[in-house]
């Protein structure tokens, strides 16, 4: 029998899937790769997560394109694995399946009032302003003067910027048209960002924090008392804290010293050591109650927030966006670790209930390690998973699947998903969006409904 | 002169792979690699060869004289990162 090329399905065309495809092609140039994606468009959070005013980061899509689609890797968009095709069907067609599905939902706060109208997960707001077709119909009420953002990471910083950038600044980005319109009409003037822990523990990168202090026409306000470090944090910062934590505290101290600018259009207030305890309102969000915390060292050595007093402070606001972390959802047909919300795995080899690897099933990215790290983290993560796969291909535990031919998977897909979006379809969408962008002096104008996306893709033939 | 990595760095390690003098840190596998927010170029070691600029997939690396205004702070931050490191090494030694 002639040499058979390994056929690999990667489920999820986000950064983790793209890095995995690129890495696999580098180490096994003979691999035949199909990149499955639930949306009609590739690159996951690079398109749908990275903030519209951070266009420089979106350049990574050129590298993904060059290293995957332009090297023969197929794009199979608008296919929902687990719905349109099952895991066991994929296993009949591919030597190996790599799950790169990310973390599609958010953690909740677990406080009363979280379900009130006007209380949102950051994931929803982000997907909406980035033109994710499943979120375009959401309506965010931006008619009240004050918005509260819960969380102290880079997503919280993105939200604070998106709520305070001027219409003119937003117009120069690829923010979705429906969001552009809503944000241009926004009456929000005051954005309060609440951190559960102190300034030394804030998860912002100092680059993002610095950016918040340099927005045009936006005042940054930090209460000097909030940046006065408690003894536990002070000691931690000198003995264990990293470069970023020290820079962050330095920046926050600088912010406290800034004079109030009366001509500022909008304000961002960063408040620390505050936990939300209840979101209040009769039909919709009217206020949020917060309680003060102190930092204590837990038994495991980590620094935790502990409530200091029972009394609460009520902050009036019209919208609450919680950005307290992403969470993966269970996938059909593969084991799921309900405690850590990942596929149980060892270095990317997915494990069965007995703890043994399931031959041919792998994981990469957030579904493998949990929602941590930045874009480039996925590159090393992909290298680890791919090295396991390559080793398994060499050592031989992987079986050639019964229906390995491309025509066989194509026939199945044609039956299950007539609106399949191929690489030609994606190129048509991309060209259309870029061309409209060029006309409107924007980096790109996104097609934000599934219908428009599919129609444009189909015009490619 | 020196090259400088600005704040949009995504820690893709392409620059490290191509740097002929190993002046970009921390490296994958180093204890602080996953905790730092970006990679930094040691201004004392950089030989201005331009290889990292070509390799960076998001164009986050600039010559010191060509730094856009919004990244002006980065020159100092890159240098400071190495100054802190060498102090830490001296203290440890």
Give an overview of the whole structure.
The complex is a heterodimer of chains A (461) and B (93). With 461 residues, chain A is α/β, with parallel strands linked by helices. Chain A has 2 domains: 7-104 and 328-421, Rossmann fold, CATH 3.40.50; 105-325, 3-Layer(bba) Sandwich (FAD/NAD(P)-binding domain), CATH 3.50.50.60. Chain A is 35% helix and 21% strand. Chain A has 18 helices and 18 strands. Chain A has helices at 15-27, 44-48, 55-58, 60-67, 87-93, 122-129, 154-164, 167-171, 177-184, 206-212, 224-227, 231-239, 243-256, 366-369, 377-395, 406-416, 423-439, 450-458, and strands at 7-11, 32-37, 74-77, 96-99, 105-106, 119-121, 146-150, 190-194, 218-222, 266-271, 274-280, 287-297, 303-316, 319-322, 326-327, 345-346, 349-351, 357-363. In chain A, helix 17 packs across helix 18. Chain B is an alpha+beta fold and 93 residues long. Chain B has 3 helices and 4 strands, in the order βαββαβα. The radius of gyration of chain B is 13 Å and the shape is globular. The relative contact order of chain B is 0.27. Chains A and B meet through helix 4, helix 10, helix 13 and helix 15 of A and helix 3 of B.
In short:
The complex is a heterodimer of chains A (461) and B (93). Chain A has 461 residues and is an alpha/beta fold.
| Sheet with the most strands: spatial strand order of chain A | 3-2-1-4-18-17-16
Query: Which spans of chain A of ≥5 residues are poorly predicted at pLDDT below 50?
Result: none
Q: What is the name of the CATH topology of chain B?
A: Alpha-Beta Plaits
Largest sheet of chain B: 2 strands, antiparallel
Strand content of chain B: 5-15%
- Provide the CATH architecture of chain B: 2-Layer Sandwich
CATH architecture of the largest domain in chain A: 3-Layer(bba) Sandwich
**Whole-number total of structural domains of chain A:** 2
CATH topology heading of the largest domain in chain A? FAD/NAD(P)-binding domain
Compute the CA-based radius of gyration of chain A: 24 Å
Number of domains of chain B: 1
For the largest interface, the chains and their residue counts are: A-B, 25 and 24 residues
Secondary structure class of chain A reads alpha/beta
Anisotropy-based shape of chain A: globular
Structural class of chain B: alpha+beta
Instruction: Report the portion of residues of chain A in β strands.
Output: 15-25%
Helix content of chain A: 25-40%
Structure annotation, total helices of chain A: 18
Number of helices of chain B: 3
- N-to-C SSE series of chain B? EHEEHEH
